[in-house]
Amino acid sequence: MSCTNQTTRLSRQYGQYLASMLLLLLTLTGCGGTSDDLIPSGQDKRPPVTAGESGGRPGNISPNFALITTDNQTFTLSDYRQGSAKGGDAVVLYFTMWCPVCSAQMDQIQFDIMPKFPTAKITYLAVDYLSGDTAITRQSQQDAGFNGGGWLAAADPGQVVTSIYKATMGTTVVIDKNGLVRMNEDFRTGENLTAILKELTATP
């Protein structure tokens, strides 16, 4: 390649780079509210939660719901409340699309967090928020290697449950035995999930 051709090619690449940067700058300045995304204020600007109000945010009483699990059982949230036959310490929902990130986070829950509570009665449900079909979710669960291991799994037809908690990939929800939502956030390090489960399973 001649020096002239190489210089032309480099000039073209540099021009494309500058054009891309200019487009990015225009996009950021043209979108209202992006300054808080780039430099978060740290303030929770969501409206306050009213005690006893039904909803999917921490402090809300979770609405009841029912899903068909991949082992063809009906998971009904109210069955896991205090005084019910299946009632225990907590229900943990993890919203998955069976991607590598989801698998890594579910592995952490299964192999790091679950063993910390060997005598607690905690139910872990993986909610396939993209699938409305139990057979598809069953196959995805098998392919991802999460058959058993302490996990129940269910599709979410019509994204009914996903809508309750405004969930997306990696959203992790903890509901206590009284139906109170104690946590609703994207899975990060697992520390908050562990701390909340310790609180809910502590012996009085």
In brief, what are we looking at here?
With 204 residues, this protein is α/β, with parallel strands linked by helices. The chain has helices at 3-30, 34-38, 100-113, 134-144, 160-164, 191-201, and strands at 66-68, 74-76, 90-96, 122-128, 151-155, 171-176, 181-186.
Structural account:
With 204 residues, the protein is α/β, with parallel strands linked by helices. It has a domain at 66-201: 3-Layer(aba) Sandwich (Glutaredoxin). Helix content is 36%, strand content 18%. It is built from six helices and seven strands; from the N terminus they run ααβββαβαβαββα. A five-stranded mixed β-sheet has the order 5-4-3-6-7. Strands 1-2 form a two-stranded antiparallel ribbon. α3 links the parallel β3 (90-96) and β4. The longest helix has 28 residues, at 3-30. The model has no long low-confidence stretch (mean pLDDT 86).
CATH class of the domain at 66-201: Alpha Beta
Q: How much of the residues is beta strand, in percent?
A: 15-25%
Low-confidence stretches: none
Write down the overall geometry.
Answer: globular
Give the helix tally: 6
Order of helices and strands: HHEEEHEHEHEEH
User: How far from one another are the termini?
Assistant: 78 Å
Write the layout of secondary structure elements.
Elements: H1 3-30, H2 34-38, E1 66-68, E2 74-76, E3 90-96, H3 100-113, E4 122-128, H4 134-144, E5 151-155, H5 160-164, E6 171-176, E7 181-186, H6 191-201
Parallel strand pairs: 3-4, 4-5
Antiparallel strand pairs: 1-2, 3-6, 6-7
Pick out its properties.
204 residues; alpha/beta; Glutaredoxin; two-stranded antiparallel sheet; 6 helices
